[in-house]
Every structure is written in structure tokens, then in C-alpha cells.
Amino acid sequence: MGLLTIGAFARASRLSPKALRLYDELGLLRPVSVDPRSGYRFYAPEQLERARLVAWLRRLGMPLARIRRVCELDGPAAADEVADYWREVEADVRSREKLASFLMNHLSRKDEPMSPLTIRYAVRTDRGLVREENQDVAYAGPNLLAVADGFGGATASAAAIDALKPLDDTVPAGDLLNALSDAVERAGTAVRELGEHVGTTLTALVRSGSRLALVHIGDSRVYLLRDGRFFQITQDHTLVQSMIDDGRLTAEEALSHPQRSLLVKALHSDGSAEPDLELRDAQPGDRYLLCSDGLYTALEPAALREVMTDVADPGEAVRELVDLANSRGGPDNIACVVADVA
After folding, report:
1. Largest CA distance in the chain
2. What is the reported pLDDT for 274?
3. How far apart are the C-alpha atoms of 184 and 275, rounded to whole Å?
4. For position 89, what pLDDT does the model report?
5. Quick one: which of 9, 120, 189, 230 could link to 340 by a disulfide (CB 3.0–4.6 Å)?
């Protein structure tokens, strides 16, 4: 079979001539011959396999730079690259789903009168018994509870928390979404300005009347004790959690996975990943625990629940939690906030 005109090649590959011209300019799919007088492009039949792969990857929504990488790999490696991309898409969809839920909840109840709640809280951080410095930061106030676990230096976590502190002023329900957006933007900018190779997780609850807005990125966590039930309300942004979500790893296997601490989302200099946002109704009697991974990796959920259930005073609870983590070796920095809703 001889060379194919751009029109024939477009029909065979299911790519438009306009797309083929673009891919030629980008070096992704170059014709084997170009008529010097007319500029007409000609393609070889053996290029159809690559062209059809490009077409399918575009239908997935894969960016052209990522498609180029896939096309340069052999079969198994290319398949792994597509799998990695699709996991990122699914994670993004889950994040967008949470944002859509947040927006619907926020907008449908924006003008509802809210009965104010009070919060009793305590906060504690600790270097642990192994680390040379403490890169964890925690904050608690009447309207803001937050923890951040920095990497590459302690400044990133402190900068992120400082950026959220204006939220400790009273935030009217109608301004909550904009206030959160501004605070997250400030936090991201503050971390990026610190330079390369630094970053932080950031997890916070912001009170507005009887509701709590959750801002979360990374693998710090929020737990809730309500009516005797103790459960995690955040989802870790880690590689192993994405593997659990995909069914490739069990929760038990994740505990000993060598990459269990590898983050897939955080505030750092290399990108602008968006945090999860969620709006929650707070109820009198609720007890919240915000903590870095230095606490929950040292203590199993049963131990966390026992302290949260049995130790009534928030100040005593945070002391007990930190002391227990250190009694188990204190392998990492620890930050925790315990808050009671009344």
C-alpha cells in the first residue's frame, strides 16, 4: 500500500485533518512526506496504529504531553502509564464530586438561620522520640481547628496554618465559600513562596453557626466521635489509599506497604493541587480529633477511640494521646486537636 493523503489518513485513524496538522506541529505524529510546493501531508499505513492510539487517548481526555509519553513507551510500560493517568482522573472526579456536594449544600442552605454552637478545644504538638525537629503545627480557636504536617522544613506547615488564621474570626454563612477559597489560595501561595522541595498537608475545620466546613489535603486526618461511633471523616491523599480505592490493595496490606507515606496531593512548590471541601452539620455532643500521621500510625483506631471516649477533658485527652504515641516509640512528629461541640 502506498502513502495515504491526509484526508484518507484522517478517515482511517478517526482523527480530523485539523488534529493531524496540530500533531505534526507538536511533533507527536509527523507525516512521512510533505509536498514541497503544496505543503500537502502524506502518511504511511504503518503510522495508523500510533494515530489510532492517539485518538483513543484523546477520547480519554489525556493531555497531549502525556500522550507523547505513552507513545514513546513499549506495551507494558505504556499500559502502566495509562493506568496511572486514569487513577488520577478518578481521584479528580472524586474530588470534584465532593466539591459539587459542598456547593449544593452551601447554596441550598446559604440563607438559613443557624443556631450558634460553642466549642471547647485543646491542642498539642510534640517532636516525638526519633525526629530531630518538629515539622507539625496545630492550631485551635473558637472558629478554626487545624493541623499541618510539613516536609522539607517546619516553615511550610507554619505558613499554611498562618494563612488560615483569619478564618478564626466569625465567618457568616453567606461568605463561607469565598472565605475558604481565599484562605486556601493564601496557604498555597505562602508555601510556594518558600521555594522548592518543601510542602505540607493541611486539614482544618471552620465553624460557621451550626455548621463546620472541612478543608483537607494530604494525609492528616479528622475523626468524629458521635453517639458512641468513632470514625474517620477525611480520606488520605496517598498512593496506598488510591490503591485501596482501586481494589489493588487491602487496608491491612496498606499498613506495611513501603510507600504508605507517599502523598499524591499536598500543598507544595511543584503544583497547585486543590483540597477537598465538605460542609458538615455539627451536633451538640460531637467530639472531633484532628491529627497528623504521627499519631494515627503509632496508635490503632481502638486506642484512639478509647481515649476519645473515656477522657472527658480535651486538654487531658490531647496529653494522653501524645503520651501514648510516644510510649509506642514516637517515630514521628505528632500534632493533635481535640474539640467538643456543645
Report:
1. 85
2. 81
3. 8
4. 86
5. 120
Q: Where are the domains of the chain?
A: 4-72, 86-341
pLDDT of residue 254: 63
- The architecture in CATH of the region 86-341 reads 4-Layer Sandwich (3.60)
Phi, psi angle pair for 241, to nearest 5°: -65, -40
The verdict on pTM exceeding 0.85 is no
22 φ, ψ to 5°? -65, -45
C-alpha cell at 74: 513499549
CA distances from 140 to 8, 115, 216, 255 (A): 66, 21, 16, 29
Give φ, ψ of 138 to 5 degrees. Answer: -135, 155
Residue ranges, the chain, pLDDT below 50: none
Alpha-carbon gap, residue 54 to 14, rounded angstroms:
10
Residue 103 has a pLDDT of: 77
CATH number listed for the domain at residues 4-72: 1.10.1660.10
> Do 31 and 43 meet the contact criterion of CB atoms below 8 Å apart?
yes
Report the C-alpha dihedral over residues 61, 202, 100, 212, rounded to 10 degrees: 170
